[in-house]
Amino acid sequence: MLGPRAENQYTLRRQRAQSVQLTPQEMVEVRAAQRTFEGAYVRTALSQFSFALVVLKIFTAEFYSIGALFAAYGFGVLFASIFRRQQGNKQFFSDVDEDGQNRKKFRTSGNVVVALSSLSIAAYASLLGMILKLKA
């Protein structure tokens, strides 16, 4: 049998995580972290574009597919950044609980992590296939 749900097990400021009310200072802190992660996604996309350009300019034509893969991966990370920003705008929402009180809630961005992980696994599997094809 599985253990208790995470929101009932973990606490934040001695409250259950599912019923926490964030103060304005805490919301500023969470939003700053959100901007940092969005910047990281954009920097990763730019580095993938740069590496793709290096591969396309320096190596021979047999490596063009690898350069194109890195460019496509860069676009995928850029779209994940846009998706995270769109989802990030929905992370903070208000909900009315059983008591009729309006509470501010926070939802994690696990869906973006799953999408980016899937994209990364697919890209690296394709890269491995391309490298093995080069040796043959």
How are the elements arranged and paired?
Layout: H1 6-9, E1 11-12, E2 15-16, H2 24-58, H3 64-88, E3 92-96, E4 102-106, H4 110-135
Helix pairs in contact: 2-3, 3-4
Give your account of this protein's structure.
- The protein has helices at 6-9, 24-58, 64-88, 110-135; strands at 11-12, 15-16, 92-96, 102-106.
- It has 136 residues and is mostly helical.
- A hairpin with a 2-residue loop joins strand 1 and strand 2.
- Helix 2 runs antiparallel to helix 3 and helix 3 runs antiparallel to helix 4.
What order do the helices and strands follow? HEEHHEEH
Q: Please report which band the strand proportion falls in: under 5%, 5-15%, 15-25%, 25-35%, 35-45% or over 45%.
A: 5-15%
Instruction: Give a short account of the largest sheet.
Output: 2 strands, antiparallel
The helix content is 55-70%
**Order of strands across the biggest sheet?**
1-2
Characteristic key phrases:
136 residues; mainly alpha; two-stranded antiparallel sheet; two-stranded antiparallel ribbon; 4 helices; elongated
Briefly summarize what is shown:
With 136 residues, the protein is mainly alpha-helical. The chain has 4 helices and 4 strands. It has helices at residues 6-9, 24-58, 64-88, 110-135; strands at 11-12, 15-16, 92-96, 102-106.
